[in-house]
Fold this protein.
Amino acid sequence: MKLNNFLFKNIDNSAMVVFRIVFGLLIFLESVGSCFTGWIKRTMIEPQFTFNFIGLDFLQPLDGYGMYVYYCIMGVFGLFVMLGYRYRLATIAFTIMWAGVYFMQKASYNNHYYLLMLLSAIMCFLPANNYASLDAKQGRVKKSISIPNWAKWTLIGQMWIVYTYGALQKLYPDWLDGTFTGLLLNSKATQYPFMAGLLRDQSFHLFIAYSGIFYDLLIIPLLLWRRTRIYAFGASFIFHLFNSFVFHVGIFPYLSLAFSLFFFDAKTVRNIFLKKKELYTENLVTIPSNGAFIKTIFVTYLTIQFLLPIRNLVIQDSVFWTEEGHRMSWRMMLRSKSGYINFRVVNHNTGKTTRINLEDYLSKKQRRMIATKPDVIWQFVQRIKNEYEGQDISIYANGKVSLNGRKYQRLVDPKVDLAKVSWNYFGHQDWLVPFEGWQKEEIKPKVSSLKKK
């Protein structure tokens, strides 16, 4: 009964309305911006093929300039969301199209893209267009100044999971001793010469490392507590603007700042953004006929989101090394990997051995990632294998990878015929060579050399 009272209590919808407007604007900018930054060309047009999520081979970019049209259509749906015009249709359509792009390619994988897919899917079910929308003005939905509490807390619950795992995933040696933040900030020093000294300073590396942990872990609780809310928002403002300015992480910082609306008093939000709106204060509990179904979906969804990021705990070896369990786990900006790899095809019918020239198959962007991503390595082997259809061949991969500046280690067993290997969707790939460990003595010289640059 207490859960029903919590989920189905009606609250003022000012924060939801403003969030919808900002959300629609941001997904419009994300979609249209991709057309002008060269992202679509580099990621969708230049490659001969894209590395989709395994099992979704039917998802491939449209020919010619089709992807530009695709993204422009997504941008239109973003405007519809912002204006509250055919809101339900627009959010569903955008979610499907964005999910298609997300699962279509991995060369530009980003946790924020995954988050945007989840938030878009959630927004499909929220009554965010009942006020300050064309739908309400034109009578497609009943105008309302309230929403059920579950609508607000689904978004808060989702973001709480994101931030909490963002903190917990940082609890590993190279983050705690400032190694990774040092690599990350040193790489930005040449781009920002006016703050190069700060970006190269080891104390600043440690400050960023630990402030990142505490920010992610505490920001939601501090926003929930009235006494610390304004200070937490100030810290959030500085944190996200720094990330936006230095790391260029797209719309995520601004989406996160808009999300802060849900923690402030409805009256404050109304007075700033919707001065003509009536304030809802009745707090009535209205349990709909499908209340049990809504409650089940609410609990089930958040439970799945809670469990998905820890699936790597039941998979052998370090997720930092094998990448198994990395995606959809809020492992955001945690490691740097570089490497090299070559592929050798042995044709048993002709006795000929052929070395694959990656430039004949992959774009520059794809070549940078293939050596470090086991699933991409396997997919590329399947691509080569298809060219030898009907012939008895073996394909071997030989390369090494450096994790966070460590010495190069072998990632793939060069003796394993990858043409004969099936992909293990839910477990460990036994053709991967185990990670040698987090020995610090191997990385110190590399970090010090970076500081001198």
